[in-house]
Amino acid sequence: MSSEKPVAKDLLGVAPYGEAMKIAVEKATETAQTFLYSICKPAADEFGLLLKDRVRLWRARNLANIANKAKELVIVNADGVQLCAHPRLVAEVVEHGSWCEDERLQSMWAGLLSSACTADGKDESNLVFADLLKRITTSEARFLAYVCERTRGSWGAQVELPESEMAKAMDTSDMQVVAYQLGHLRSLGLIRHPSESDWSHPMLKQMPATPAELGLHLYIRCQGSRKAPDDFFGWKKFPQDYPQ
To answer: φ, ψ for residue 242 (rounded to 5)?
Structure first.
């Protein structure tokens, strides 16, 4: 029996781009390719063909970053990765995550990929969160993470933020951007809809920005965890009347 280690397939499609590119990304992509192949062997060839045709240097680097971040979160032992992700979820990461250059979004895609890994690789539940993640902007992702962390230890109490804090969380000074991105997050069910009186004017000085249950679950899965909100945030129990 040969003692040589199996060579990872060229999942990132970097081979055709020459020595210059190989020097730039070889180290990162080699680890990423090995990791993606290890958690999704059934579709490895298909991903290779997809990536060879559609992923260029910029997307290859982004995907390599995501895969390498995910690798740090997935449980491994002496025999290598012992958990597998469903091919449909890996395809979502390849197709949509590779367009994200922002480090926070890359980390969220990495967390989603790692929390998708199960013993049999058949769990598809993270497809719900992948669909949400690909629809939010970088600013919205920052804001969701900010308000989710504000609920830590708060038992789901309503989070109210002044407009200056909302703008800072979204990394913008344009309150019109804040207003319509808040509306978008609400329309996706990720933060709680305020009451009629709360939302009487889109430029209020202070507005409720409490994450809805769906937003909490998205945030937690994007941290690489499959815990329920009460366990993740350290609540004694999940509030029965938590705002939806």
So the answer is: -60, 130
Q: Which CATH number is associated with domain 138-233? A: 1.10.10
Q: What are the sequence ranges of the domains in the chain? A: 15-133, 138-233
DSSP state of 119: S
Report the Cα 109 to chain-centroid distance in Å.
Answer: 3
Q: Under DSSP, is residue 197 helix (H, G, I), strand (E, B) or coil?
A: coil
Angular region, 58: left φ>0, alpha ψ -120 to 50, beta rest? alpha
pLDDT, one tens digit per residue, over 192-228 is 865 444 444 454 455 667 889 999 999 999 999 999 9
Kind and range of the H or E element at 227?
A: none
Handedness of CA 115, 89, 99, 166 (dihedral sign): negative
Q: In angstroms, rounded to a whole number, what is the distance separating the alpha carbons of residues 162 and 48? A: 48
Chain center to CA of 1:
41
pLDDT in tens, 33-66: 677 777 776 665 555 555 555 456 778 888 889 9
d(C-alpha 73, C-alpha 165), whole Å = 31
As a residue count, the chain comes to: 244
